[in-house]
Each structure stands twice: as C-alpha cells, then as structure tokens.
Amino acid sequence: MTDPMSGAAPVAPPKSLRELFSGFFWIGARSFGGVMPWAYRTMVEERRWLSEADFTEIIGLCQFLPGPNIGNASVVLGKRWFGLPGAIVAFLGLMALPFVWVLALFMVYNDLSSYETLREIVIGVGAAGAGLFIGTAIKLARPLAKKPVALALIAACFLFVAVARFSLVIVLPVGIAIALFAALRDWL
Amino acid sequence: MNLLELGLYFALLSLLSVGGLPSVMPEMQRFVVELKGWLTPADFMQAFAVGQAAPGPNVLITSLIGWKVAGLPGAFVALGAMCLPAAVLAWWVADLWDRFKDSPWRRAVQRAIAPVVIGMILSGGVVLATPGAPDWRLWLIAGLAAGGMLVTKLNPLWLLSAGGVLGALLL
Asked: d(Cα B87, Cα B98) in Å, to the nearest integer?
C-alpha cells in the first residue's frame, strides 16, 4: 500500500530484532564519509521505519545529549521499538562492522607506517579532518552571527580550551551555566 | 592500570560529550598526550586520521586511541567507556524530552548549548591541526578542507583524500 500523496510506502517500525539489527548494520556498513546521511536514507527512505519529522526530532534530541549522536539514536530507537534488547541490538548492529573495519585499517597502517610517504598522506588526511571540524563549527555558527553574546561565548570557549588548554571538565559546565543564564534572558 | 584510568576518564568524557565526539577531541588530546604522555602528538593525529577516513561513527576514533594505549583490550575499553554512560543517559532522558516538549527550559537549554558546543568543535579542529609545533602546511590543508566543506556539497571523503594528496606533496 502506498501513500497516494507522496507515493511512498507507509511508515512502520521494524518487525523483528533481526530486521532492526540488519538495518543498523547496513547503516554502519555503508557510512563512508559520515553516518547521518546513511541513517536517513536507510530508516526514512528505504525501510520507512520513521517519517522525516520523527527522524529530525530524534536527531535533535541526540545532538542535545552527550555521546555519539548516531549511537544515542540507535539506543533511543531500539528502546522505543523493542525495549532493552532493541537498544542493545541496534547499537551493536551499528558498531559491529565499522569497529572491525577501523581496527583492521589501523593495523595495516601501523605495519606500513615506516614508509615516509604514507605517513605524510595520513597526516594530510588528519589535517583535512581537523579542517572539517573547523568547517562544521563555522557552519553551526552562521545562524548565530548576529548575536554578540553567542559569539563572545564561542570565543571564550575557544580561548580557554584551545589556547589556554583548560580542562573540558571545568570549561563545559561553567560555559553551559553562563550560556543558560544568557539564554533565559533572551540574549541567545 | 593505564587501562582502568583510561576507562574511567573516557567514561567521564562520555557524559560531557555534548555535541558528540568533536566536542571532546581537544580534551582527549590534552589528557592522553599532554597530561599522561601515552601517545605522541603525531600518534594521536594518525589515530584521528585513520578513524576519520574509515567508515562508521567517528566515536570509533576512541577505540584507536585505546588501542595505542593498551592494545586490543584498550580498544574495547575506550570505545565502551565513551559510549555506555551516554547511552544509559539517552535511555532515561528520551521520555523526559518528549514530556518537556513545550517547556521554555527545554528551548533555553537548546539555545544555551549551541555556542558552547561550537567553541569546543572549533577548538578540536585547531588543536588537531597543530600536533606539536605550529606548521603552516597543516593549517593550509585544514583551511582548504574547511573552505571546501563550506562552499561545496562534496562528500567529506573527497576532502580527506585531497588532504592526503596535499600531505604527500607538501610534507
């Protein structure tokens, strides 16, 4: 049965733990260059476990929570559909193959790292990866560009963490407390 | 004992990793490299690079750091410690989150977290691009990748590959 408006199949949760595992396994298996797009494609477009709005809501929650976003999403969704077994199965499905992959890649790299050129390539990849963090920060900061208090908070966190090298254990709680104070006064 | 210390500290970071792994990267570097000296800055960066290039959630980088510190058990302990406390919290908070959907507190918290997380992610990028002494070539590669990400919609893998090529040419 398809939805006459969009032509898409109706949204229905996975029917079994096996199906839940295979869905998350495929998300992990294909996620070259970032997991989120594949999570969307698998759960919203291909398997129709979630509507687009459900997906956005879950991701919003998981970005707010500490921890790996997509890992949290697997726990929250697994719980919603199958309780504790669901949370465990979804999380393991997501991590299983990428875990093996990354360790295997690292082992190969360690064996070959005496080759100077390979070391240089990997350090170049690392620098580009660091650049992706910087790009992400700029992207996220764009909507805040006209809020001076937000920009001051970003700058202060940067100075304390990257320049003065204070511990996150101190900077994060203090930063969030100040930001919360500002948010409640509508400065953010 | 390194294993226990690593596990406990990463478990603490798990609960502080608002915004995901990128937010805690500068602190992991500080702890593992600067405070404990378990890894050299170059080791840390290489673990990060391999973790970024491999498919899967970027939290897997922690398993490579654990591996460098204490072998295969280190890989399991580091990854588990980084994921489990946050997962338990997510388990409990998911229901609360729905209940407070329209609360002004929830909106305030969401708005408050954004600038702090952005500051952490920016720090992560700069710290990772500066392993050891500042090197303009690494900053150039990082700057180009950041720019490429902002002006194109390329899959990040292309930007990482370009970084690899520039690394071979410049370094």
From this structure: 17
Phi (first) and psi of residue B18, to 5 degrees? -65, 130
For B114-135, the pLDDT digits (tens) are 899 999 999 999 999 998 889 9
Nearest CA-CA distance, residue B69 and chain A, Å: 14
Q: Please report how the helices A116-141 and A69-112 are oriented relative to each other, as an axis angle in degrees rounded to 10.
A: 160
Structural domain boundaries in chain B: 2-103
pTM equals 0.89
Residue A33: predicted pLDDT? 72
A10 touching B (Cβ < 8 Å): no
Percent of chain B with pLDDT over 70: 100
Measured in Å, how far apart are chain B's first and last C-alpha atoms?
Answer: 37
Are B120 and B24 a contacting pair, CB within 8 Å? yes
- Domain locations along chain A: 1-115, 140-188
- Could you report the predicted ipTM of this complex, rounded to two decimals? 0.91
Instruction: Check B166 against A124: CB less than 8 A apart.
Output: yes
Check residues B27 and A7 and name the one with the higher pLDDT.
Answer: B27
3-state SS, residue A185: coil
Three-class SS state of B70: helix
> Closest Cα to residue B149, out of B136, B163, B135, B137?
B163
A interface mutation test: which of B13, B28, B32, B58 has the most A CBs within 10 A? B58
The token pair at A17 is 């733990």
For A57, half-sphere exposure in the C-beta direction (CA atoms, 13 angstrom radius) is 12
